[in-house]
């Protein structure tokens, strides 16, 4: 197994969600977003939704493209799930809901990529978030909360380990 490409960025999980999609796939999917509430990561083939337990502390998002076979999720992963995403353009956008794109990755080539998503520090980041909010008082200085988010002692992380599986589906002119 060889790592062919890797991209990482920080993203704020606006409304507790980070979205990954092909650069031309603008329309979201409410059903997939709802499924992410229980599955943590869910998608519809063109969009993936990563569901955090908090909306304000930046998370790390890493997309790794491998030659097959894929590495297994690490033993310390809190969870993992199979994923698939189709990219006609060969560009994946990492989007912060309500805030806009956090970054984009150029894939080795357009196509369908399959693999798994895994995550770490989701629970402990949520606990830090809740504890920090509980410390707020009327006397808390301006900027204290922003600084607390910046200084979170752990990093919530989501990793997509993917491999190219096939060409994208051809576009039907009736779909345009």
Structural commentary:
The protein has helices at residues 30-39, 122-134, 144-150; strands at residues 3-11, 17-22, 41-43, 47-51, 59-66, 79-87, 91-96, 100-106, 111-120, 157-166. The mean pLDDT is 94. It is built from 3 helices and 10 strands; from the N terminus they run E-E-H-E-E-E-E-E-E-E-H-H-E. Helix content is 17%, strand content 41%. It is an alpha+beta fold. Strand 3 (41-43) and strand 4 (47-51) form a beta hairpin. The relative contact order is 0.24. It is elongated. The longest helix is centred in the last third of the chain and has 13 residues, at 122-134. The chain has a 5-stranded mixed sheet with strand order 1-5-10-9-6, with no helix packed on it. Strands 3-4-2-7-8 form a 5-stranded antiparallel sheet, with helices on one face.
């Amino acid at each position: 197994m060889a790592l062919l490409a890797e991209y990482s960025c920080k993203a704020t999980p606006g409304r507790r969600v980070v979205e990954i999609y092909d650069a031309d796939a603008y329309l979201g999917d409410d059903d997939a977003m709802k499924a992410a509430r229980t599955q943590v990561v869910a998608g519809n083939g063109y969009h993936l939704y990563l569901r955090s337990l908090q909306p304000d502390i930046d998370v790390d998002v890493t997309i790794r493209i491998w030659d097959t076979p894929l590495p297994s999720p690490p033993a310390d992963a809190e969870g993992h799930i199979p994923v698939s995403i189709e990219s006609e353009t060969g560009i994946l956008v990492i989007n912060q809901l309500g805030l806009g794109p956090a970054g984009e990755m150029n894939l080795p080539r357009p196509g369908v990529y399959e693999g798994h998503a895994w995550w770490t520090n989701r629970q402990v980041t949520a606990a830090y978030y809740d504890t920090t909010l509980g410390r707020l008082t009327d006397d808390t200085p301006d900027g204290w909360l922003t600084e607390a988010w910046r200084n979170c002692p752990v990093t919530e992380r989501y990793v997509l380990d993917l491999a190219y599986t096939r060409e994208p589906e051809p576009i039907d002119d009736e779909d345009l």
